[in-house]
Amino acid sequence: MLSDVSSWLVWILPLISSLFVPLIAHFSEKARNYFVLIISLITAILAFSLVPALFGVEEAITASADWMPSAGITAGVFIDPLSVLFAVLVAFFGLIIAIYSQSYMKEEEGLTRYYFLLLLFIGSMIGLVVSDNFLQMFIFWEMVGLCSYSLISFWYHRPESIRAGAKVFLMTRIGDVSLLAAIGLIYAYLGSFSFRYAIDNISTIPVEILTAIAFLTLGGAIAKSAQLPLHTWLYSAMEAPTSVSALLHAATMVKAGIYLIARLILILGPLAFALPMWLPAVAWIGVLTAFLGATLALYTPDIKGVLAYSTISQLGFMMASLGTVSLHSSLGWFASLFHMMSHAFFEGLGFLLAGGIIHALGTRDMRLMGGLKKAMPITFALSIIMILTTSGLPPFAAFFSKGMIITSLTETGNLLQVVLIYITTALTFMYSLRFMKLVFMGEESEHLKKLHPHEAPKLMLYPAAILAGLCVAWGFVGPWLIGFMHVNAEVSLLGSFFSLETPIFFAILVPAGLIIYLTYYKQSGVMMRFRSSSNPLMSVLKHGYFFDDVYERITGRGITTLSSGVRRANEVVMDNVVVPARGIVSFAGRVRNLDASYSGNLPQAIANAVIKVAHGVKKYLDVLADDLLSIIAHRTMQGASRMKNVPSSSLQHYIAAALLGFILILLLIILTVGI
Amino acid sequence: MVDILDVVLPIISLVTFAVLTIPVFRVIRKTQHRTALALAWFATAFLVSGAAVANLALQYYSLESPLPFLSVTLSDTPLSEFSSGFMIDGISVYMAIMFVAVSAIILVYSVFYVDSSKRPSERYFAIMLVLTAALMGAVFAGDLLTLFIFWEAAAAGSSFLMIYKKDPVSLNSTLKYLVMIIIASAFIVFGLSIVYGLTGSLNFWAVREALMTLADKQLLVIAFILIASGYAIEAAIVPFHFWLPDAYAASPSSSAAFLSALIDQGSYYVLIRVLIFILTPPDVLNWTFMLAVMAALTMIVGNLFALIQDNVKRLIANICVADVGYNLVGITSVTALGLTGNLYFFLMGGITTALSFMAVGVASRYGFRTLEDFSGLGKKMPLVSIALVIAALSFAGVPPLGGFMAKYLVFTAAIQANMSWLAVVGVLTSVLQVAYLLRLVNYMYARDPKDEIVIKEPKRILVPIFILVAAIIILGFYPQIVFNFIDPVVNQLPLIP
């Protein structure tokens, strides 16, 4: 059968071909570009050819080959609707980006590296979703990560690119360790990595271990899919070329976390509902991320920043929806994947258009834009489709997918989550309108007048137009898709229009639109005062809720403290005894200040409190991290500092240490064996 | 039937080539193509000894049932088990193949690194050959005394490699190394004498049989502590490790690569052989907890020390210490998976440290030594930097490089042996490794170079470096190549009563 071959070729082909890119580039650059295009086209065809194989098949199609027989590890493919959906998306998007890059990256240097990594990424990402065991999946999980760091640091002569790459590496590494721990536990209890074996035998694992596995896996997904509290890397990842951002950081790689959780729910089966707190945790993380991401998107002046935070927010929607799965309904599971696809289309479209705009204007700052409507009419028209889809207006794709997410959240009956999600949809509408206004509407800005921008090249507009078409069409695929995915839920297109959610949705769009209208079109005084930089709420948003600042203190400073801290350690250790006391005193002081600043204006005061607490936490963590790390550094390295310079350590120390070790062995043996 | 000649042939051939190297180099040095001829000479040496090892492996595996502890002695008398002799099993064969292969690559590097036209260089190469032969003797040893003699020859002999530069720093650290080795051998000999008193033999098999049925274990405990301390000094287990960073950092990079990839791995082999296979299986004396504590200490201290280094070579030397800890995790578990992980780690850990020493060696030729010096190295020496980054990623355990699978196997083995805490320590210290290795990468790529010196990277010396890079990537992706050699060993483990 064709699918037997194509399920292997679809990821092996791009992986192998990536190695030939440098070779072919040796002969001719043109040949290299065509080679990449042809390979991604074949990959897309192979991926689509997997779809018909699944018609009328209930079980997943698997095949495996020996990889490390001595460790009992096989390499294999696991073809089911979930993996095919992802594989098709990745292959299709890879093709779109390969076409787009021909024009967008035309004048860059190091294109051989770029195309090599692009094909490597496509192969690894498809490999990730069609893997039939955890180990293989993890290896590809790391490989897409590697491609991501390398592409973020693509312009390696720019220090900020390197810094962003390193930051992303460290942050996602936290998730990788967590996921690795989960896989280690699975292997320790099942003795196998295989999905199929896990599905059959998962119930033999004790519930408490299973809970640990589920939460550790969630940790991996949080880091990869930029969920709270590890979401900040996605904004830093915007240092990558825009085409890369569209492929990796909007459409495919960040969805790996969604895939992981969706896959885990399938593997756990009914056991997923028996795990304490797990599904609610997934839902809450999703809802909070969606809300927080949307507020940040409303603030940032960076055109790619809006899209990055929007991606974070939309990933939150998907995560929240996965958390609503219950014994009787897997609507949430389907809604999440459905939204995953529509998000890939509209956010990918957004990035492709932003790429064209950045190309024409040479800046990412939206405050320098405005009035692009006339200069770039096609981009403008496509942007309208993008914005309507993002906001979730009918009949565009996100209307259906978001509607389903809201329905599934309503079914769980958690009122707070439902309210937050409605507010988030309103915020989504707000930041979309703001984006539109700042970039396209109004007078031409000074920056624009100097530049005389032109419409993006055709080769960049065609891929965008395809995505725009999918934004319109995708919503109507829902009923067919739900059959394809074997989900037991009723979805009708008409039902989406006449459900209770629709009027509520439209009702909240009105005030949301009004706020944006007042702020940006009327420039009303109230709103201006609110937005002034003296407003503490703005400061909180400006710092992205201080996540990065705190992390920087803990990690960045931590490492430097550990490495250079030895020298300073003495002084700090001297007064580390008073740290708790100092903390309490300063906290009390802060509370008093807060009291004093409570001068009648309630909203101001609340915002004030938020920023004060945030500052307090930041400072306190700072002190804590600093002191803790320096104590560790001091205690363990007091001796080490002497060893640092070569001849200064004398033989006596060596022998003393060896005697110490001898005594240690003696003690340990006597303790465990006894004489 | 494996003949005694099959066993000694690899050793004798290497020693012969070593002895001949000195007169041969006198001739070679006068000719025009001296480097090419030197390479050809060593190629012959390794082809001959490689063929001898291959012959031995084939002989061994063509036996009806390749059992562990196949004794090979000079005479076939009934008392032969009390005499010195050799012994072949899966591990010896695997280690021998590994030693020949890795040693050949490092020798090629040394020919370019140590100026082979200068005077004492022929002795340097000869000593490398002799050390490889001594290691081979140690892995084929059939009794504790033969093992001791060959292993001490390798360990003490490696001081010649360290001292090659003859500057005060290397003299100082080599002297310290020698004193430590002598203390270690004193410990070991003392322990061995007790074992001999207890069992009346030093033959592996006889000792093992006798110990299994030993009634009074008091003396055995003392002997064990002495022997374990002795070998712990030589394997640089914390807190016996202080000599290692000094010695490796002070020796020339080619020596450091040789020491980390061969001598270091040899010391783990001795630990495995003595602890798991012969002296005291955990049923006789429960030493696993002791070793687990040492493993945890070694991983933590090794990585913390690496964190504070400014000198890149010392940083890598400290990673060697940490690697000892990861190897001990595998040894501690005493499971089939742990043994697989160990043997795989021997190879991957060895070539990764060798690779980084080689790359750092090329950089240090141009005066780049500290982290500050490495600023902007990515632009100055792109190929060397790439090799160093691959090594760093492999150290940090990033799949699909070799380091990942090695660490993964030993950690899973620890979980299987109900020592999850050890695996947790291992994973956490690996995260620490990411931190300081990333710092190195950050210096190399994100910082601007201090000066505008343009360096033309030497091309020839990069060949052995990139052979190792390719090995790390290929063996990481497809470890089965190595597992094919390890499988017989692991299958033999349950055969030992």
SSE map:
The complex is a heterodimer of chains A (675) and B (497).
Chain A: H1 2-27, H2 29-53, E1 61-68, E2 73-79, H3 81-104, H4 111-130, H5 134-152, H6 159-190, H7 195-201, H8 207-224, H9 232-236, H10 242-251, H11 256-268, H12 278-299, H13 303-322, H14 331-361, H15 372-375, H16 377-391, H17 397-412, H18 415-440, H19 446-451, H20 458-473, H21 478-484, H22 493-498, H23 501-522, H24 525-531, H25 536-542, H26 547-574, H27 579-597, H28 602-643, H29 651-672
Antiparallel strand pairs in A: 1-2
Helix pairs in contact in A: 1-2, 1-4, 2-3, 2-4, 3-4, 3-10, 3-14, 3-20, 4-5, 5-6, 6-8, 8-11, 10-14, 12-13, 12-18, 13-14, 13-17, 13-18, 14-16, 14-17, 14-20, 16-18, 16-20, 18-23, 25-28, 26-28, 27-28
Chain B: H1 4-30, H2 34-61, E1 70-72, E2 86-88, H3 90-113, H4 121-140, H5 144-162, H6 168-199, H7 204-212, H8 218-235, H9 243-250, H10 253-278, H11 288-307, H12 312-333, H13 336-365, H14 377-380, H15 382-396, H16 402-416, H17 420-446, H18 462-477, H19 480-492
Antiparallel strand pairs in B: 1-2
Helix pairs in contact in B: 1-2, 1-4, 2-3, 3-4, 3-10, 3-13, 3-18, 3-19, 4-5, 4-10, 5-6, 5-10, 6-7, 6-8, 6-9, 8-10, 9-12, 10-12, 10-13, 11-12, 11-17, 12-13, 12-16, 13-15, 13-16, 13-18, 13-19, 15-17, 15-18, 16-17, 16-18
Provide a compact summary of the structure:
With 675 residues, chain A is an all-alpha fold.
Describe the structure.
The complex is a heterodimer of chains A (675) and B (497). Chain A is mainly α and 675 residues long. Chain A folds into four domains: 1-276, no CATH class; 284-531, no CATH class; 540-644, no CATH class; 651-675. Chain A has helices at 2-27, 29-53, 81-104, 111-130, 134-152, 159-190, 195-201, 207-224, 232-236, 242-251, 256-268, 278-299, 303-322, 331-361, 372-375, 377-391, 397-412, 415-440, 446-451, 458-473, 478-484, 493-498, 501-522, 525-531, 536-542, 547-574, 579-597, 602-643, 651-672, and strands at 61-68, 73-79. Chain A has a two-stranded antiparallel ribbon with strand order 1-2. In chain A, helix 14 (331-361) packs across helix 17 (397-412). Chain B is mainly α and 497 residues long. Chain B has a domain at 287-497. Helices cover 75% and strands 1% of the residues of chain B. Chain B contains 19 helices and two strands.
